[in-house]
Amino acid sequence: MLLNLPKAVKPIGVRFLSGARAACVGVDVYPSHFASLLKECKAILLHMSHLMPDVFVGNALIDAYGKCGLMENAVKVFNMMEFKDVVSWNAMVAGYSQSGNFKAAFELFKNIRKENIPLDVVTWTAIIAGYSQRGCSHEALNVFRQMIFSGSLPNCVTIISVLSACASLGAFSQGMEIHAYSLKNCLLTLDNDFGGEDEDLMVYNALIDMYSKCRSFKAARSIFDDIPLEERNVVTWTVMIGGHAQYGDSNDALKLFVEMISEPYGVAPNAYTISCILMACAHLAAIRIGKQIHAYVLCHHRYDLSAYFVANCLIDMYSKCGDVDTDRHVFDSMSQKSAISWTSMMIGYGMHGRGSEALDIFDKMRKAGFVPDDITFLVVLYACSYCGMVDQGLSYFDSMSADYGLTPRAEHYACAIDLLARFGRLDKAWKTVKDMPMEPTAVVWVALLSACRVHSNVELAEHALNKLVEMNAENDGSYTLISNIYATAGRWKDVARIRHLMKKSGIKKRPGCSWVHGQKGTASFFVGDRSHPLSPQIYALLESLIDRIKAMGYVPETNFALHDVDEEEKNNLLVEHSEKLALAYGLLTTFPGCPIRITKNLRVCGDCHSAFTYISKIVDHEIVVRDPSRFHHFKNEYNHVLRGGAMWIVDQEKGKGKM
Q: What are the respective helix, strand and coil percentages of the chain, to the nearest 5?
């Protein structure tokens, strides 16, 4: 019937589309059904070729096809249109953007700009959002500037997209400018009176996220606190918690999570919230709280632990909290595993010195059909380095290019250098640096400098530091390493020279700090710290333990007391190391049989490692020490029978303090 209409009836396009829309009123139509309907509409319209010049019909079809993801059909309609207006071009850009074909959207956008065709806010926003979502944040900000200069006014969605770009860049100044622009142009209310407007809250959430990622927590928290408690949604809480967990104080993240789920306006966290709070637990090594979050997840069935998103976060948390066995239990319970799941499990085993198990996971990953990439090999090389698996590590390094066609990056070379140097092959490590196909980066020179610390090679260490200085990549860690190398060699004048150079350059050495979770809470200690109320008992216990382990064969490694003093004073300085103080506090405040988990901000010194090995044989605790590079486990399988040994010392010291 439609095909028999007279050609003179020009308004048929309008009536046809209106009729199609009216036919769908009150009818549940799935997108797939609507797409099929559009195909039928197009077939009819193609027979009515006199309708194709009708710009209204063409634009409506392009818009509809774009929203249904049928961009091939949209392109055909666009190309058949004899006349195209601004709406036609805008609809095409929006369609490409909505369907995820940002490359085509960007190309069309460039052509539109060359032809000076006006753009509407939808098109500007589509391009800005496309750039922002693809990580091209500089381009997103540049397009936003073009939009403002063109006289087009952004809407809330535009502002959200451009704030996301600022957040990715950490562009604090630009973010503040956009915040001010939004207030000036009434895109935000000054009094935060949302009145049920979701768009306002979305912009405020984006502002919190931006300020958090720019590490301006005062500004982020000010906006967060101004939002009425009953108006905050799950995104509001999540961006604030995530900001603290990732960039700020993880303790604040934990406090916010408790507030979030508390009555009377308790908000149920989503999977992203859970991932953020697990990240905070990992940063703090707060395994007790992490386990409580795990239990919360299990009790609330909205979180599917068989899926890999939340489970991956649990794997990371347990690894960083020192419980790799529970880590493996979570991993094995997953019905779906992503590449991140496999890699996270390998990282966990590698960090805990269980290299053979890390490589076993690597083999199972390949058998499961996952092809390892450069990140996977980086994890494998780290695992081999941590565990002293030199030959296996070098074999995997060669396998990257030979078997998988992957070109090793500087980070892979740094791992290989660390692997060689750590186990006595410093000459070959230096040859590897010289033979690198690319210019060695800072990470390579730091790896070589660290190796020189182990082997006391002053000349090569000086060369590595000079390279870092040339690259402006030196920091307190680099200067501390060379200073320690000089101290070990007895070159105290050079030690003084390095300290003077650091002071002149404004570089401060980070003081060693360790913290431990005991039954009475978390305590932190610096070197020689005597500020804790239990300090008398802590030092008395350490003195008793050192005497006992000396009788077992422990010899203090005074080369780690990096001061120009006599041997007796060096012995006293070693006792005051922060990790030893943390261990003594843990022994005084932790029930027998419970693990003592210590975290240190710098690498554990060799003497403390040796002392802990002996102490673990005479106390009824597993000792787990986490430093920036790995976990150190100290456990004696038979220490449960040694209660009559050194444990009486611990019991005596516990009795002296007010617990």
A: 65, 5, 30
pLDDT for res 260: 94
pLDDT at 504: 80
Q: 280: closest CA among 311, 317, 315?
A: 317
Q: Which residues contact 25 (CB under 8 A, 6 or more apart)?
A: none
What is the Cα–Cα distance from 444 to 91, expressed in whole angstroms?
A: 51
Q: Which domain, by its residues, includes 478?
A: 453-505
Please state the domain count of the chain: 5
Q: Is residue 593 part of a domain?
A: yes
Q: Are 458 and 554 in a shared domain?
A: no
Distance (Å, whole) CA 90 – CA 124:
9
pLDDT value, residue 506: 80
pLDDT at residue 77, as a whole number: 87
pTM tops 0.70, yes or no = yes
**CA atoms within 13 Å, Cβ hemisphere of 355:** 15
The answer as to whether 353 is a domain residue is no
**pLDDT of residue 28 exceeding 70:** no
Secondary structure (3-state) at 633: strand
- pLDDT of 443 over the 70 cut: yes
pLDDT band at 637 (very low <50, low <70, confident <90, very high): low
**Distance, CA of 7 to CA of 15 (rounded, Å):** 14
Cis peptide before 372 (omega within 30 of 0): no
Q: Are 562 and 456 in contact (CB under 8 A)?
A: no
Q: Are residues 106 and 58 part of one domain? A: yes
- Does residue 174 share a domain with residue 238? no
